[in-house]
Design a protein that fits this description.
This protein is α+β, with helices and mostly antiparallel strands and about 270 residues long. The protein contains 10 helices and 10 strands.
């Protein structure tokens, strides 16, 4: 795919703003060009934008200079996070369409950058985090291993040293500053719920009549009136939320419920409390 200059500049600003650096090899890999071409684009961008980036030889990367003021990006975290999952707005739209976006959740680049650095390099990071169970701002040290988009919001899957277990940390609930610490021996391979694969089996609500059940079967391309969905154990509850299935309550009307879990006993161990 041929990438226009404005698309290059958008990507350069996106990486510089949210990750705090742009490496020529990284840009070359994303855009499927040579390292020399990527370096040329970075220099070209810098010349047209009053040397907004400075080159760091020790890290072989371009970093935001003082007063860096990106012109092509929105500066909203959702733009960066959507790009990570391949839903970037810099791609040409082929068909008119409309997406329902979740409400914006604020996260500062000054906070995002150390979280991304810790995620990339397997480091511990000290952060402040609030939750519904613990609304008071509490400092803790985590070791993130994956970013996860549930379809409703983003969270980091990470080892929590305070609770001594792997947990999900909603990005919008980090507060204050974050400090990257030393490397950790904790890896995603240690996260049992992440490494465990489970199979969710769903079917049309049996209270629907035959014609209504056939509509659901066709919509989800079911085989033998069932659909098997494979997912990581720690993502199971999010998958059910996207399907609008409450595993602990049956809706009063079958037309509202539409889908039911066939193998609830097999998966109940992995559901949220």
């Amino acid at each position: 795919m041929r990438v226009r200059d404005e698309q290059f500049y958008w990507l350069i600003e996106l990486l510089a703003y949210w990750e705090g650096r742009v490496q020529p090899m990284q840009l070359a890999s994303i855009c499927n060009i040579s390292r020399q071409q990527a370096s040329k684009k970075l220099n070209q961008y810098n010349q047209q934008n009053s040397k907004s980036l400075t080159y760091c030889s020790s890290h072989k990367s371009y970093q935001p200079a003082e007063g860096f003021s990106p012109q092509s990006i929105s500066r909203e975290a959702g733009e960066y996070l959507n790009w990570i999952t391949g839903q970037s707005s810099y791609r040409d739209e082929l068909l008119p369409c409309q997406s329902l976006l979740s409400p914006r959740r604020s996260i500062k680049p000054e906070l995002m950058r150390p979280l991304i650095q810790a995620l990339r390099n397997g480091r511990r990071v000290e952060v402040n985090y609030v939750s519904i169970n613990n609304p008071d701002n509490q400092g803790r040290i985590i070791v993130p291993h994956h970013l996860v988009n549930t379809g409703q919001r983003w969270h980091m899957r990470a080892w929590c040293e305070k609770s001594q277990e792997f947990r999900d940390f909603v990005l919008g609930r980090f507060q204050g500053d974050a400090e990257v610490l030393e490397k950790s021996s904790v890896r995603s391979a240690d996260d049992v719920a992440w490494q465990t694969s489970v199979t969710l089996i769903i079917a049309p609500d049996p209270r629907l009549d035959e014609a209504q059940r056939q509509v659901i079967e066709f919509e989800y391309a079911m085989q033998n009136s069932q659909l098997k969905i494979h997912t990581r154990a720690c993502l199971l509850s999010y998958k059910l939320q996207k399907l609008n299935i409450n595993p602990r309550m049956l809706e009063g009307e079958a037309k509202v419920q539409q889908l039911v879990i066939v193998n609830k006993d097999d998966i109940k161990h992995w559901l949220f409390d």
